[in-house]
Design a protein that fits this description.
Layout: E1 3-8, H1 13-22, H2 24-27, E2 31-34, H3 36-45, E3 50-52, H4 60-69, E4 75-79, H5 89-102, E5 106-107, H6 110-122, H7 126-133
Parallel strand pairs: 1-2, 1-4, 2-3, 4-5
């Protein structure tokens, strides 16, 4: 069971809901996390439970980033809107940088998200379970 974060900018929320609905059977076996409205919209349209953090502009990106920094997140799907300026852009960049530092797969568009979810469905993320199994201090 992996920890998966689902984040979408306002103009990408419908796309995220449609995507998660299409792959609900894959996401059902994992722990889901999301920023405020995105998480709520996913729960309203599926049978999935999403642990909701604050809205992105209010710190939700940073809350998810804290889990990434501790290597507690296994996969991020962050549907960004590249055509709209975001007031919390520094938080977004910090989250993406943390994913790079920790080696956490992060999709920022629907095409990459689909590739990652298909890999998840095939079991290609089993290596992440080893990360948790051999985490320092848990032996």
């Amino acid at each position: 069971m992996l920890n998966i974060a689902l984040i979408a900018h306002d103009r990408k929320k419908d796309e995220m809901v449609n995507f998660v609905t299409a792959y609900e059977h894959v996401f059902a076996g994992h722990n889901l996390y999301g920023t405020g409205t995105t998480g709520q919209r996913i729960m309203d349209n599926t049978k999935l439970d999403v642990h909701r953090f604050m809205s992105g502009p209010l710190g939700g990106d940073q809350q998810i980033g804290a889990l990434v920094a501790q290597n507690e997140m296994d996969l991020i799907i962050f549907l960004r809107d590249p055509l709209m300026a975001q007031p919390h852009e520094p938080d977004i960049i910090a989250l993406l940088r943390l994913c790079d530092v920790q080696g956490i797969p992060c999709a920022t568009n629907i095409a990459t998200a689909e590739i990652l979810v298909k890999a998840l469905d095939r079991g290609d993320f089993a290596w992440r379970e080893l990360v948790h199994k051999y985490k320092p201090g848990l032996e």
